[in-house]
């Protein structure tokens, strides 16, 4: 029977931007590795597929009002890997501001350290504020995706540069590696020249899991070609179903098995022991948001400066979105236009979910909504975004997961120890030129 | 009283290239994080200042004969940080093949994760084989150092971009950070344009420890200006004393306190319970070296292809060394010329130490030699390079360290918890433009 996939998307002390202000929250934990180690253990207790770390190479919002999301993801995941045994470890890393050799090596290292639990969420870094930390000018969308495509190609070649069995370790003859099985990659592309081989043997998964979240046309094509899992922002079921159907078709078009690419919308799950309690929690969080504080975040998401825009007015024209390049932005702008929302109404609507789906209710109600999307062709699982951390993840793991298990929708034990294994994917064979 | 500084320089299953062939060695441990976690705990048991990880972005030698030195250093150190409390954690990272924002962020992250124990060994990546993994052509020495200089400048500005006390975490007012204390760096240099600020608060050490190992003219000037500790290859005391005196003068010339820059020659310490036992171990290791296997390594070190050169002949002319650009190479070539060594004799001489000082003997004899260099102006301490790992580090920690402690030369307890603290260095104040 088909099973759900569930990742714990971790973000500081919670996804809701006011999470750090709730009573009991400790904002100093956003830079405390023990906090993240505990969250990883909680996710493992819930038999989740993985923990997922987003990343930005600049602030996400206005640092006056918003906490950080954490430390550098790879460094954090290495520390989380050694206190867990099963949970997958997915880090976001940019193809625009890194080099393929370094990225291949870091993820291969994490895969060795974790015994086969590494995943790479590939991003192309769309923000101007990130560009300003790397030379100043943001490369155009198409250029970033062209670089990402060649980048992933090089990284995959490097991961494949050691065959299985290449390490002989023959102490008597003094032969460490079989050089017939360790090959230069000699990549000579438009953007990269990389000789290889990687200086790390093939890792337990062969290739770490590839995750992608682009939902522009370029992004979807890229994901359909490379990704093992796709993260997407889908606030409502009809758009999620359309995305799902379209995306699986694209996967088939690329000659791949659509069952081997998991589509995972983000899910902000607000759990209460009663419906009323969940609604109260949601209200409390919303009341803690200072609307002015989120204007910078919304500006960043939409790629337009709204800091001088009146809070009681609808959104201005947003040229970037018209070009269809920024599709999460597109979804948000569509919603604002459709419902004629003022900037402040939009801010409150997005508070705590950044355009992702929100469900608030009892564990049974949340399980109902998860099940509906899962059986109606809208999702293969979810990237769960707890509004508060650790509390929101504890609630999900202790109350929602058991309900999903009772319904036979989610694993009750891990069957293997690798992230690919959790996703039902085989270990890739080495590709030869 | 002045105390020695001792780092455990870790390298796979030992610094001797034949270490992996000795009985009891397990070559599979070179990619096993538990091996390195145990080594870090051993170094901490010995109250050493730090563990030190070298790095290369290509193979060090011929992979047919030589094992790897480990996984990617930052990833490894994050996993080692969380099983230790005091030991410093120094990772090598290249300024030629990384971006300043990423490097500042990774070391700040490691410093947070470890509670103030991170150190950065700054290298400019001199090898052609590394260049081939990053576009193909090795930038000239002077260009690499010019980049390194601006690079460290930017990284330091980013580390200083959050003042202490910038994080308010005021839950009642909803103010996370005091923006007066989080400043853009607005670096507009010849090579880098970086706006900042860093998206990580000032770390426990303020700035991670800076280590450097260049011994060319540019390298020494760079280190005299920036480094808190200097790693150097000095096979004999007279050259070490000359290096020491010259280097401390350079430090003074840069307006710095010479007592605040530790000079640490590499030290290959072969410990036996008797002198004879140590000599036997050294001989056994040497006998396990296949001379042909090291030709590639020597070629890489000297920057010239010796793979077709007859083993029984002296070195050919090596043009790069004449230019004085490759100074460890210079020391080695000088030694070969002075003693009229054949290539094979040179290989056996370098086996297990790569041009560093070798001492073999009882713990007392090794302590004598450490003391001599320490009191005679040749060293402030050593980067200890155990021929085998874990055995060689256990021997050093269990037998040599206690002897040094008995003599009052080395700490018997840690006095603080930060790497800067171990080196007697204050936490830097934030520099303002």
TrEMBL record, chains A, B:
Major enzyme class: oxidoreductase
Pfam families for the chain: Bac_luciferase (PF00296)
Residue ranges that the Swiss-Prot or TrEMBL entry lists as coiled coil: none
Superkingdom of the source species: Bacteria
Any one GO molecular function term: oxidoreductase activity
Keywords tagged on the record: Flavoprotein, FMN, Monooxygenase, Oxidoreductase
Residue span, Luciferase-like domain: 23-376
Leader peptide range in chain numbering: none
The EC number(s) this enzyme carries: 1.-.-.-
Stated family: Belongs to the NtaA/SnaA/DszA monooxygenase family.
Protein name: LLM class flavin-dependent oxidoreductase
Species: Streptosporangium amethystogenes subsp. fukuiense
């Amino acid at each position: 029977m088909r099973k759900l996939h569930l990742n714990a998307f971790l973000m500081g002390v919670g996804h809701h931007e006011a999470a750090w202000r709730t009573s009991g929250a400790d904002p100093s934990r956003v830079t405390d590795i023990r906090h993240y180690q505990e969250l990883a253990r909680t996710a493992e207790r819930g038999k989740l597929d993985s923990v997922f770390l987003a990343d930005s190479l600049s602030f996400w919002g206005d640092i006056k009002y918003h906490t950080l999301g954490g430390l550098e993801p790879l460094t954090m995941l290495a520390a989380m890997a050694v206190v867990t045994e099963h949970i997958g470890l997915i880090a976001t890393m940019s193809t625009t501001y890194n080099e393929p050799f370094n990225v291949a090596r870091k993820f291969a290292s994490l895969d060795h350290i974790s015994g086969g639990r590494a995943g790479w969420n590939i991003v192309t870094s769309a923000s101007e504020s990130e560009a300003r930390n790397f030379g100043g000018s943001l490369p155009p969308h198409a250029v970033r995706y062209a670089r990402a495509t060649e980048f992933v190609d090089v990284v995959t070649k490097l991961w494949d540069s050691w065959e299985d069995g290449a390490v002989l370790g023959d102490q008597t003859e003094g032969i460490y590696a079989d050089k017939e099985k360790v090959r230069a990659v000699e990549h000579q592309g438009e953007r990269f020249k990389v000789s290889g081989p990687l200086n790390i043997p093939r890792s337990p998964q062969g290739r770490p899991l590839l995750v992608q979240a682009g939902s522009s046309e370029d992004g979807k094509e890229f994901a359909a070609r490379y990704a093992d899992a796709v993260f997407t922002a889908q606030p409502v079921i009809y758009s999620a179903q359309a995305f799902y159907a379209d995306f699986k078709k694209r996967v088939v078009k690329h000659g791949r098995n659509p069952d081997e690419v998991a589509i995972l919308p983000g899910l902000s799950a607000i759990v209460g022991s009663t419906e009323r309690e969940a609604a109260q929690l949601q209200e409390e969080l919303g009341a803690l948001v200072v609307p002015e504080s989120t204007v910078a975040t919304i500006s960043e998401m939409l790629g337009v400066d709204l800091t001088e825009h009146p809070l009681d007015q609808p959104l201005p024209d947003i040229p970037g979105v018209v070009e269809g390049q920024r599709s999460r932005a597109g979804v948000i702008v569509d919603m604002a236009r459709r419902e004629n929302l003022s900037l402040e109404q939009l801010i409150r609507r997005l508070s705590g979910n950044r355009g992702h789906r929100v469900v608030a209710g009892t564990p049974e109600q949340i399980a109902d909504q998860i099940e509906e999307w899962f059986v109606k062709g809208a999702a293969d699982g979810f990237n769960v975004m707890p509004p508060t951390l650790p509390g929101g993840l504890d609630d999900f793991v202790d109350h929602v997961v058991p309900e999903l298990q009772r319904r036979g929708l989610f694993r009750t034990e891990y069957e293997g120890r690798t992230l690919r294994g959790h996703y039902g994917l085989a270990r890739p064979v080495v590709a030869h030129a």
